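Practice problem 4.
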């Protein structure tokens, strides 16, 4: 018996990857081997950067809190230390949001620590 290949499935598999690499430059979009490598590399970047995104947002929140508490003559580390000691259970995301969008509420939090 001769060997048969499932050309329909093979073509569908290739078309799926080529469709996902649409918009890439030159061979990265339409040459199968290059497009496959591009697609796989993109998946690794996506996985890695979902973790990096969390780091960068936390750094942004810390910068915003630090900038806001400096107006009250305090540093970020002093503020977080006092907040932990006084059992203020607001996380950095919420504190940064208060500092940016609700300065009166943030001022009340800072005043409660002094």
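Answer key:
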């Amino acid at each position: 018996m001769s060997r048969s290949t499932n050309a329909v499935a093979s073509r569908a598999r290739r078309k799926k990857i080529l469709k996902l690499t649409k918009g890439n430059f030159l061979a990265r979009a339409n040459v199968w081997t290059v497009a496959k490598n591009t697609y796989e590399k993109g998946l690794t970047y996506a996985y890695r950067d979902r973790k990096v995104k969390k780091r960068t947002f936390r750094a942004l929140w810390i910068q915003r809190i630090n900038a806001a508490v400096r107006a009250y003559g305090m540093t970020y580390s002093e503020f977080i230390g006092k907040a932990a000691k006084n059992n203020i259970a607001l996380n950095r995301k919420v504190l940064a949001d208060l500092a940016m969008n609700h300065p009166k509420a943030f001022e009340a939090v800072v005043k409660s620590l002094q």
